[in-house]
Amino acid sequence: MFGLSELAVVLVVVIVVLAVKKGPELARSAGRSARVLKSEARVAQETERAARHGGSRESAESGHEGPTAPG
């Protein structure tokens, strides 16, 4: 029969194996989430700054107003 120490060793091995398989995927996902959060925070700051100064966010981001014609 398994004792507590053997069960703990098996549990640690299972966790390590799962961490090796899923670790890079989790790190990539965390990096993407951090980039999205950072860009959304930047957009929110620009929007707030533009609202205080009377401009629009689109003109502040793109440097011009209105859509451009293709071609």
Distance between the termini: 76 Å
Tell me about the largest β-sheet: none
Give the topology string: H per helix, E per strand: HH
Report the C-alpha radius of gyration, rounded.
25 Å
Instruction: Assign an overall shape.
Output: rod-shaped
Q: Kindly state the percentage of residues in helix.
A: over 70%
Q: Indicate the mean pLDDT.
A: 81
What is the total tally of β strands?
Answer: 0
Q: Return the structural class.
A: mainly alpha
List the helices and strands and how they pair.
Blueprint: H1 4-53, H2 57-62
Description of the molecule:
The chain is an all-alpha fold and 71 residues long. The chain has helices at 4-53, 57-62. It is rod-shaped, with a radius of gyration of 25 Å. It starts with a helix and ends in a 9-residue tail after the last helix. The mean pLDDT is 81.
